[in-house]
């Protein structure tokens, strides 16, 4: 698991891998994200090694990085040797336990570029509409007012993260998750 330290310079992220077992009751976080197709233009330093990573993973790790202390994070990109079929199979069989054992699962949906920053307005409008349904006085919204919000919501749900089958296991197993 990389231990992400907030001691970076020039955009670098620093970390290291530790070997541990689930039985040790280690406090860690899991990252749920969508693998990038490339290019691998960013990097993370692991000891004396620099590992190239895709932009979406870099952004997620930056978000997870604490300024004043290390954070232990399980990330499949680093923790599963994709070149070793036997290890990969063993890790995949343990995924539910890995996510279930995490203090928190952090879901990274990717960069907001589809209008999803407007979703709070949609949720407010849904609450207003529900309030009217139950007899609570609220200002009605017209379909034209909601159109932009619904488009943003549709775009949000079309993000690649939602198409991954693994997310079901990752979210169901989580004690707590944050998006």
UniProtKB/TrEMBL annotation:
Cited PANTHER family: ANKYRIN REPEAT DOMAIN-CONTAINING PROTEIN 39 HOMOLOG-RELATED, HET DOMAIN PROTEIN (AFU_ORTHOLOGUE AFUA_8G01020)
- Name the UniProt record assigns to this protein: HET-domain-containing protein
In Pfam terms, one family for this protein is HET
Q: What InterPro entries would the database entry show?
A: HET, HetReg/Transcr_Mod
Record domain Heterokaryon incompatibility: where: 28-170
Q: Which domain of life is it from?
A: Eukaryota
């Amino acid at each position: 698991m990389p231990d992400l330290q907030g001691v970076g310079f020039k955009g670098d992220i620093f970390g290291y891998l530790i070997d541990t077992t689930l039985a040790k009751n280690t406090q860690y976080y899991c990252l749920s994200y969508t693998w990038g197709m490339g290019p691998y233009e960013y990097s993370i330093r692991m000891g004396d090694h620099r590992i190239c990573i895709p932009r979406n993973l870099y952004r997620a790790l930056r978000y997870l990085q604490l300024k004043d202390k290390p954070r232990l994070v399980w990330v499949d990109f680093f923790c599963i040797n994709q070149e070793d079929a036997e290890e990969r199979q063993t890790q995949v069989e343990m995924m539910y336990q890995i996510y279930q054992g995490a203090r928190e699962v952090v879901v990274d949906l990717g960069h907001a570029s589809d209008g999803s920053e407007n979703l709070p307005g949609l949720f407010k409008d849904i609450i207003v509409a529900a309030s009217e349904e139950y007899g609570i006085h609220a200002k009605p919204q017209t379909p034209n007012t909601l159109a932009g919000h619904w488009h943003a919501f549709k775009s949000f749900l079309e993000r690649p993260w939602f198409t991954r089958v693994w997310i079901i296991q990752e979210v169901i197993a989580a004690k707590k998750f944050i998006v």
